[in-house]
Structure formats: C-alpha cells, structure tokens
Amino acid sequence: MKDRMTWEETIKFIRTQPEFDYLVDKAYFEENLPLNVERFTKSEEFIETLKILKQYQPFAKTILDIGSGNGISAVALALEGYHVVSIEPDPSETIGAGAIRKLKHHYNLTNLEIYEAFAEELQLQSESFDIVYTRQCMHHAYDLDKFVAEASRVTKKRGLFITIRDHVIFNQKDKEWFLENHPLQKFYGGENAFQTVEYRTAMEKAGLKVEKEIKYYESVINYFPVSKEEILNNFQIRRSKAISNFKNKFGILSRLTFFQYLYLKRKGLNESKKLNENEIPGRMYSYITIKT
C-alpha cells in the first residue's frame, strides 16, 4: 500500500476489511448508495436535524448542501421536498459528485442540482438560499474564514446556516490525540479539527449570529449512532468493574465511602464524569446560526 490513498481509494479499501464493517455501516459508506440514503433518512440524526430546520426556517424552500460526499444528505433533503443544490469537490462515483448523480437518477429527482466545487469557491448568487447546511464538512476547510464567509454570502438575510457534526479540539495536544485515534487518518491523511473559538469567530466575522452551539452530549445529532442509553450503560459497566477491582485490592478499606469516591475520581469514573466529552477524541459539535 502506498503512503497515502485518495479518499475514494480509502473507502474502497475499508469495504474489503472486516475490521471496518461497523464504520462502513454506521458512516453510510456502503457500496449500495440507495441503501445508504434509506438508512440515513430514518436515522435519529436526520430526524432531529429536520426538526431544527422546521423550527428555524418553517417556510424554507431552497437548501444549499455543502460538502455532500456520497449524497446521503442532499438526496434526503430533496426527498423531503426542498430544492437542493449540492456542492461536492470530489468527482468520484464512490464517495463524490458522481455518486450523487447516480442517486439523482435513481430517485428521478428534478429538485436536485449538483456542482463540483470547494466551499471556499462557490460560484453562486449571493443571498439565494433559505438554508445553508453542511454535514461533517466544515472541519475539512482549507480556509475556515473563507469557507464560512462564502456560506454566509449565499444565505438569505435572516436565513439559516447550520453545521452538523464538526470535530472540535481544545488545543494542539488534543488535536494530535484526535488524529492518532481517527481510524482513517493513517490511510488518507485528510482529517482536521478546530477549536470552538475558531468556529464561532469565523461565523461572527461572516455576519452570522450563533443561536446555539450544540455540544457532543447535548444532542443525538452529534453522538449518533450511539444512543444515550448505550453511553450510560457503558459507563455503569466500567464503573462496576472499577468498584469490584477496588474491593478486591483494598479489602476492608473499600467500605469507606470517601476512599471509594477518591478511587473512582482518579479513574475518571465518578458520577460527574459519566457524560465527559473530554474522553471523546475529536468530539463533534453542531452550530445553529442566523444571518443578521
């Protein structure tokens, strides 16, 4: 294997590796493109996203989907009745604009347009969309300020710019930890993340008012496909094992509640840590903004 693959080569490769079956399934990377769309449209993430779109732009008709990837979001939104313009720089039929064109033909969508372009270089009319939507894309920006400025430029006044599932890091060390733990970074080297202050500053500079910053554990949009129940159950399993080890190790001293509390705290398993996003490398945030 060469040092670096393209994104398309990476996806084709992991489809052949059993250890990536879960990722291929949960990230909608299956070769069967319509199956990806059908599963995405029924996901908790998309259902919750639609609620936000209806809440903030109940009369919206036009949506720009930036960084559409293999088309699951663009097609899902078009199937909801929106007129969708899809922006995707990758031309491939596996994971890019070619895949979206296949899906457009499959679903016979007349309300979906597809352009191959980078978000920083949109060749679209200013203030032409009710909603600008981007899913797992903004953190890939090669120029974050320009990315957000272009998104804002094409959003109508009082329109909605919504970003879904972008990786957040707290500092450079945290970023290194995220990149080391990302399962696909070693193949194609294209992952990235920004600090919250960088996202928010870019938005404010572009004339966007941040209505809500949705942190990792605040919505299923971010932590999907894991459920809140799974998260809490996993925490309780880890906590129970730690308590058992504590009792075996310290015997009679384990009966002292305060001693047990200190032990669990050192292990990061006290109750206040059950939803600790610091333990998630590159945890995902979403942003709801309105163009002022």
TrEMBL record:
**Top-level taxon in the UniProt lineage:** Bacteria
Specify the Methyltransferase type domain's residue ranges: 64-162
Quote the Pfam families the UniProt record gives.
Methyltransf_11
Output the GO biological process annotations, alphabetical, semicolon-separated: methylation
Record keywords, A-Z: Methyltransferase, Transferase
Record InterPro entries: Diverse_substrate_MTase, Methyltransf_11, SAM-dependent_MTases_sf
One MF annotation (Gene Ontology) recorded for this entry: S-adenosylmethionine-dependent methyltransferase activity
Signal peptide position in this chain?
Answer: none
Record family assignment: Belongs to the methyltransferase superfamily.
Do you know which PANTHER family this protein is assigned to?
A: METHYLTRANSF_11 DOMAIN-CONTAINING PROTEIN, METHYLTRANSFERASE TYPE 11 DOMAIN-CONTAINING PROTEIN
State what protein this is by name.
SAM-dependent methyltransferase
UniProt lineage = Bacteria, Pseudomonadati, Bacteroidota, Flavobacteriia, Flavobacteriales
